[in-house]
């Protein structure tokens, strides 16, 4: 909980590096919401792989140091700045971005990045919506041009983005295949919209997918670990199939001829490049999904703020994703 007067706990990064650079401080000033901003008392904050890439300094975007990580916050509005009419103190909300950082007791966000949190979802689920669901929707429809009746393979389907992609694709009429690294993960994928699940730790799992899809292959692949899977993904595609690059942790060698034989596409997905109109489109579709009941985030590992370094270690080196990782201030 926040300390006396106007200070709070927040995780601060003073230099780029490994998880050990995440420092929990208890004397950080609670930010004041400025014009068109909202101050949120954080009940849960999602942890995303991209936050580990940014922290390491090996990412396209580098925030000015020091900074507090975290974009996917769920909590209760504490106060609002001038000209904010959509929210008031006490409202349950979630965000897709913060200004001050979400790994903290309180966070400031722009009012247009804040959305009402339905009573159908708890705060931990609210913290699992932002980056995963907006990324999955963008990958499938805004960049991947998915259509009802097409097939999608979600590679790494038991994590936050993977489960989001399965739920969205199923709700929108696609045939869904998913991979995971454990029996538990595969069962989770099946419970969340996949027609079939495969264990990507089995040596012959690519052959099993080919056998299942037959001559056609899949129309879209949502790829979380392209530095490992991209060359094999190109073998799994249908004609004019597309691989959506959502995650990557290094380089890989591919044969471009594999794209020519099927006129397939490799398309990068970066949520931070989405326009305001695109984000609004995502938000509208996802809020409808919450109301309809098909958008149900699965929460995995939970960590207190004190264990933030462990969370960053586990999200990269853990033994297989099982839902969305969250921090609980």
UniProtKB/TrEMBL annotation:
InterPro entries: ADH-like_C, ADH-like_N, ER, GroES-like_sf, NAD(P)-bd_dom_sf, Quin_OxRdtase/zeta-crystal_CS, Zinc-ADH_QOR/CCCR
Keyword DNA repair: no
First-level EC class: oxidoreductase
Alphabetical list of SMART domains matching this protein: PKS_ER (SM00829)
UniProt GO cellular component terms: cytosol
Enoyl reductase (ER) domain sequence ranges: 17-327
Entry keyword set: Acetylation, Cytoplasm, NADP, Oxidoreductase, RNA-binding
Cellular location(s): Cytoplasm
GO molecular function list: identical protein binding; mRNA 3'-UTR binding; NADPH binding; quinone reductase (NADPH) activity; zinc ion binding
Enzyme Commission number(s): 1.6.5.5
Catalysed transformations (reactions): 2 a quinone + NADPH + H(+) = 2 a 1,4-benzosemiquinone + NADP(+)
GO terms under biological process: protein homotetramerization; xenobiotic catabolic process
Alphabetical list of Pfam families matching this protein: ADH_N, ADH_zinc_N
Family indicated by similarity: Belongs to the zinc-containing alcohol dehydrogenase family. Quinone oxidoreductase subfamily.
SUBUNIT field: Homotetramer.
Protein name as annotated: Quinone oxidoreductase
Origin species: Strigops habroptila (Kakapo)
Gene for this chain: CRYZ
């Amino acid at each position: 909980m926040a300390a006396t007067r106007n200070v709070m706990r927040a995780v601060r990064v003073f230099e780029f590096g490994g998880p050990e650079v995440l420092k929990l401080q208890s004397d950080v000033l609670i930010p004041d919401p400025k014009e068109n901003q909202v101050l949120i008392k954080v009940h849960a904050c999602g942890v995303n792989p991209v936050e580990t890439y940014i922290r390491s300094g090996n990412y396209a975007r580098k925030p000015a140091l020091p900074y507090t990580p975290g974009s996917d916050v769920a909590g209760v509005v504490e106060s609002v700045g001038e000209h904010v009419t959509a929210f008031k103190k006490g409202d349950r909300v979630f965000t897709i971005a913060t200004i001050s950082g979400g790994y903290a007791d309180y966070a400031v966000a722009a009012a247009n990045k804040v959305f009402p949190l339905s009573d159908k979802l708890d705060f931990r689920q609210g913290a699992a919506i932002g980056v995963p669901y907006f990324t999955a929707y963008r990958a499938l429809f805004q960049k991947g041009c998915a259509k009802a009746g097409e097939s999608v393979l979600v590679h790494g389907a038991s994590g936050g983005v993977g489960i989001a992609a399965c739920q969205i694709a199923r709700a929108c009429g696609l045939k869904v295949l998913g991979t995971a690294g454990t029996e538990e993960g595969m069962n989770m994928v099946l419970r969340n919209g996949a027609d079939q699940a495969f264990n990507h730790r089995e040596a012959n799992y690519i052959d099993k997918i080919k056998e299942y899809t037959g001559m056609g292959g899949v129309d879209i692949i949502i790829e979380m670990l392209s530095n490992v899977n991209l060359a094999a993904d190109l073998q799994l595609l249908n004609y004019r199939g597309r691989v959506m690059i959502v995650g990557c942790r290094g380089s890989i060698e591919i044969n471009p001829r594999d794209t020519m034989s099927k006129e397939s596409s490799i398309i990068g997905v970066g949520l931070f490049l989405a326009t305001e109109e695109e984000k609004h489109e995502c938000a509208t579709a996802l809020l409808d999904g919450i109301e309809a009941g098909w958008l149900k985030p699965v929460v995995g590992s939970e960590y207190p703020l004190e264990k933030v370094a462990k969370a960053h270690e586990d999200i990269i080196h853990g033994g297989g994703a099982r839902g969305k990782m969250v921090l609980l201030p």
